[in-house]
Amino acid sequence: MKRGVWEFNILMLCIIVGLLFALQFKNVKGQYEYVPLKVIHDYKVLIERENKEIKNLKDMIADRENKIEEYEKIQEEGGKFKEALLKELKEEKFRSGFMDMEGPGIILTLDDGTRELEEGEDPNDVLVHDLDILSIINDLKVAGAEAISINGQRLLANSEISCGGHSMRINNQFFAQPFIIKAIGDPKKLEAALTAPVSTGELLKMYGLYVEVNTSLNIKIPKYSEEINFRYLKVSEEGE
């Protein structure tokens, strides 16, 4: 009788141990479940994006702290906030294009061609179009131009350049040829961007348009003088 009880206990112990092994195997299998590479990549991109956002927030906080310290220093030294704010306003105008500027750069003159047309040739081939000017502006930006104007109109991000009959619309005003494009930056780089063999300037010359590029040690570009109305733009919440 005792031997039967002992054997029964051994049997129950084996069953319990078997169940524990089965549960443990199930848990281990769940932990090492297969994860597709795309999911890993998406998580990696998400983590990098969050880290970048954290860095931006830290930079913003550091900037605000520096600003507070600057204001506290002005207060301790008996300075005036008005002067500090005017200084900041001047810096913002400098960066945004609302101040007259001067510096070294180039002056480009662009006009319609005067050569005789070949038989069957489209007269538009020797006329200045908005795409020609846009391409030149892009070449100047790539070459590091810090300020650009066309016929005295300062170009900003919202400046439009479009053909309007025989004239060109720039900053909501119309101008006829010739188009005088001024750019402040490294004169050699700007000149090379317009006179290199594959540049837009040289291609327009090949078509017969008048293109003249000159460098200058002191070019003056006026500030943006048109009114800007933002209907849809708004400041995003910090941290978004």
UniProtKB/TrEMBL annotation:
Keyword Signal on entry: no
PANTHER family: UPF0749 PROTEIN RV1825, UPF0749 PROTEIN YLXX
Family affiliation: Belongs to the UPF0749 family.
InterPro entries, per database record: DUF881 (IPR010273)
Entry keyword set: Coiled coil, Membrane, Transmembrane, Transmembrane helix
Membrane-spanning parts: 6-23
Coiled coil location: 40-77
Gene source species: Crassaminicella indica
Protein name as it appears in the record: DUF881 domain-containing protein
